[in-house]
């Protein structure tokens, strides 16, 4: 991590500076789209964004990629215990958590946001599918909406924080719905399906048809129609979240606008490949990510001031 970012954030303790730098490396490796967007954050907020990402990534890995012979439930229980220590102001014993604890204190983040996140992580250990979007909402609240709410104090708002909260939560939801569409093949391999079963059934699609398409590499008109409808719904959530950008502090708007454009760009890639995402992950090419980031930054400066 650049010393200037740590200096801008007022982080002077050598141990903390090392911890924040470690979180930044995790974000750079695993959160490419998010990491690119954070480069447009005010320097003072970048270390905290990396710390929040590092915490979420560690918990998510316990569930999605557990070490051989490990118990994900026990791992999440340990994370919850460390949260207790963080919010009690006690030493966690984990140098990487030191950056997270410092961020929690600096921005006075609500413990309930992290409890909701861990609740959704636990749901992944037992829930393999959701019948409706209403059922899915409980999961997306904890896995995504609260991420937007965690980030909001870092970004800052022009008016009361509460006015921007519904939009921040909606943007987190929109990002997560995009993840579900992009990663549907990988999730099937893990035995999970986040696309609501009733929505798929309306087009004659079920889990077995999805597995057949992934196994054979063959496309099906019913799957394309179902995924097209889900992409359209996802775009509507992005539109619902859009007005919240103008409620942020001016210096934070380019970052959030860019993240929105980059993530919605994944939907463009999904549509461009004919919704054939079961055997391959739709990604925005690196050169386009950088071009979009530059263009989105410029447009956001004009649109949002």
Spatial gap, N to C terminus? 29 Å
- Largest sheet, strands/sense/barrel: none
In which range does the helix fraction lie? over 70%
Order of helices and strands: HHHHHHHHHHHHHHH
Provide the β-strand percentage band: under 5%
Q: What number is the mean pLDDT? A: 90
- Give me the count of strands: 0
Q: Identify low-pLDDT runs.
A: none
Care to describe what's here?
With 305 residues, this protein is an all-alpha fold. The protein has 15 helices and no strands. The chain has helices at 3-8, 14-30, 32-38, 46-64, 72-88, 95-107, 111-123, 133-155, 161-182, 184-189, 197-201, 207-216, 221-241, 253-272, 286-303. Helix 4 (46-64) packs parallel to helix 7 (111-123), helix 8 (133-155) crosses helix 9 (161-182) and helix 14 (253-272) crosses helix 15 (286-303).
Topology:
Blueprint (H helix, E strand, L loop, with lengths): L2 H6 L5 H17 L1 H7 L7 H19 L7 H17 L6 H13 L3 H13 L9 H23 L5 H22 L1 H6 L7 H5 L5 H10 L4 H21 L11 H20 L13 H18 L2
Helix pairs in contact: 2-3, 2-4, 2-6, 3-14, 4-6, 4-7, 5-7, 7-8, 8-9, 9-13, 9-14, 13-14, 14-15
How would you concisely characterize the structure shown here?
The protein has 305 residues and is an all-alpha fold. The chain has helices at 3-8, 14-30, 32-38, 46-64, 72-88, 95-107, 111-123, 133-155, 161-182, 184-189, 197-201, 207-216, 221-241, 253-272, 286-303. The longest helix has 23 residues, at 133-155.
Key terms for this structure?
305 residues, mainly alpha
